[in-house]
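Recall the central idea of this unit: under ordinary conditions, the amino acid sequence of a chain determines the structure it adopts. In this exercise we apply that idea directly, starting from the sequence alone.
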Amino acid sequence: MPLDREEDWQQFFQGSYVQARSGIYEGRIEPIAFPLLFNKPIIRISVRSQTSRRTWWLAGTLTQEIGMGMEFQQWKIPLGRKSIIKIELSGKYRMRFDVARWLADIYLEIDTYEGND
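Accordingly, the structure predicted from this sequence is:
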């Protein structure tokens, strides 16, 4: 399966998020629950940060949810790289991304694989 052909990927979700701040209080970026249902078995996720340190490698944890918020699978997502995830479960499912607590900002992209299996 040639997953390196860019034309076989379709953007599914993108967004920018920043850490909550109020005076001296610095919160964290809240978990991102994607509003759309996924139905593709292969996705690609990329997370970047403009304020991260060069030694930080973890962007956060991606969680597959089925039914009413039941966690099914989890993956550690690296910072600054594209990761391809193969979903074991067929049918529709939801995803949630929990951002590493030390990141103050992120830009998140998720693509679905539309090529022939």
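The longest strand covers residues 9-18.
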